[in-house]
Design a protein that fits this description.
The complex is a heterodimer. Chain A is mostly helical. Chain A has 7 helices and no strands. In chain A, α6 packs antiparallel against α7 (152-172). By secondary structure, chain B is mostly helical. Helices cover 77% and strands 0% of the residues of chain B. Chain B is elongated and about 55 Å long. Chain B starts with a helix and ends with a helix. The chains are: A mainly alpha, B mainly alpha. Chains A and B meet through α1, α3 and α4 of A and α3, α4, α7, α8 and α10 of B.
Chain lengths: 173, 189
């Protein structure tokens, strides 16, 4: 193995020397490197330099206990503020998230129902064939499948009122 | 904070915190605040900046805790948030310094009274200043790997977890950082 006596370490061992300094070599790498170090002045010198230089780059800051008390207190306040903000957003989200779709759906169903009733009344009373109820039921299934459970009460009340109107029309006949 | 919280392991505390127990999260803060602060200080070398950055990392961890799937350890996940914030801080600071330099150049201001430049500071012969300058010139990933290894003593595999990189890549970054740092310090001597 070629020995070098300059300040630069052997290229083949440079990375391993860095890892060796940090204790990150495998057992095999360590044995190979230690065998090499016995005979290579440049690599020994490089390793010695790393052992001196690298710990000296660490700048230690030791804040007082008052600093740490303030740190925890400040962070608790920031966490409180963040939690409060989170709750505020949740409230807004609860208000807005589930309502637009069911409200629109209910409005659409009402509009369709009213249109159908108006059309039928202008044509004269007719025997209810159940199509409108199945239409409402299919809508109800659709919303149920979308987990819009909040809309169920509203849909049921619309269905009930439509059913009552249908029964009244049938009795009138 | 109860002694029970302080005795629990990280995973138990994370689960409790995910279920909404604020006290559990505060126990994690108490456990990691000094390490978090030291990492941030390594990047910033400024006490107030280090405090703000490490606290911001805890706030981000708190708000995203429900997305943490516990496949990695809490500290790996948390250190990743922190290191990202620190790297972003370095980028923002470099941008501000560059913009400030451009403004001064446009105004034609001299630099005689504008405080010492990093190189001038190093010329004062203060070792800490020289090291700070040398560290600042390292590419961000090399710098992060070097600080986590040399200053914080994390293992290569832990750093690989934090940086989401292969261990071989981390070794290469560490090697390059050490060689570059040695060279910069020799130039500044």
């Amino acid at each position: 193995m070629a020995m070098r006596h300059s300040s630069a370490p052997c290229n083949a061992f440079e990375q391993d020397l860095v890892l060796y300094h940090y204790g990150e070599c495998s057992e095999v790498e360590k044995q190979t490197l230690e065998a090499h170090l016995e005979n290579c002045v440049a690599c020994r010198s490089f390793l010695q330099e790393l052992n001196t230089l690298l710990p000296s780059t660490v700048e230690v800051d030791q804040p007082s206990s008052v600093f740490w008390q303030d740190y925890s207190r400040e962070l608790r306040l920031k966490l409180d503020a963040q939690s409060e903000k989170g709750r505020w957003w949740q409230t807004i989200a609860v208000l807005f998230r589930p309502w637009p779709v069911p409200a629109l759906a209910a409005a659409a169903i009402l509009a369709i129902g009213i249109t159908m009733m108006t059309t039928k009344s202008s044509d004269g009373p007719s025997k209810p064939d159940g199509q409108e109820y199945s239409y409402m039921a299919s809508n109800a299934d659709f919303f149920k499948s979308m987990d819009l459970l909040d809309s169920m009460d509203l849909l049921e009340s619309v269905e009930a009122s439509e059913a009552q109107k249908g029964e009244a029309a049938a009795q009138h006949l | 904070m109860t002694s029970r919280s302080l005795e629990l392991g990280d995973e138990a505390l994370v689960i409790a915190a995910q279920l909404g127990e604020r006290e559990a999260f505060e126990a994690l803060v108490e456990r990691y605040k000094e390490k978090a602060y030291r990492i941030a200080f390594d990047f910033t070398r400024d006490r107030e900046e280090a405090k703000d950055l490490s606290q911001e990392a805890f706030l981000q961890a708190f708000s995203h805790l429900k997305t943490f799937d516990r496949r990695a350890s809490f500290y790996t996940w948390f250190y990743r948030i922190l290191v990202n914030l620190c790297l972003d801080y370095r980028r923002r600071k470099a941008k501000v310094m560059w913009e400030s330099l451009e403004e001064k150049t446009e105004r034609g201001d001299g630099f005689a009274n504008s405080g010492p430049s990093p190189v001038e500071g190093a010329m004062r012969g203060e070792i800490a200043e020289k090291i700070g300058v040398a560290l600042a010139t390292l590419p961000p990933k090399q710098r992060a790997v070097f600080l986590l290894k040399n200053h914080q003593g994390l293992s290569i595999s832990e750093i690989a977890g934090v940086m989401k990189s292969a261990e071989g890549t981390i070794k290469v970054h560490l090697h390059r950082a050490v060689i570059a740092l040695r060279q910069r310090l020799a130039e500044l001597a």
